[in-house]
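dumping these here so i dont lose them again. two proteins, back to back, each one seq then structure tokens. dont judge the mess
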Amino acid sequence: MDKNEDLAILAEPKKPAYSEVKVSSEPNSFVAYLSLSPDEKEEFRQLRDDYITEKKHYREQELALGWLNIKKQESVDVDVAYLPYTYKCETVHDMPVELSDRFAPTDNIRRQEVLVL
């Protein structure tokens, strides 16, 4: 099981195309704005407005993830040299996972601690 399998993926919204409103009669042909009917133009305007809203939301989420990334790196103790383990992480979620995998006690170490006590 992949550890990132259940994580949501932030995907950039797809810009609408005229072909989403009007299907061309010939395959691989170009659909021009002038060839759209008034209803199709209105539908395309709505798709474009939705795209602009989704794009703005996407950028806000991207900025928030960047800020969260910075805050997580700031919270890591620099003096103990843990910070380099956060550099190669692709997502914000990977940072604590990477640090935990590297520095958290394993089950064997915990068993030894219990036996010693």
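---- next one ----
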Amino acid sequence: MLSIVQPVALAALVVMMSFTGFMAMDDKVEERE
């Protein structure tokens, strides 16, 4: 069970990191204008 949950949690963490990074990039672009 743990072997199935671990990769899913890792994938979710990567998605959250990329999403927050994308939002930060978008905010920087808005500030630049």
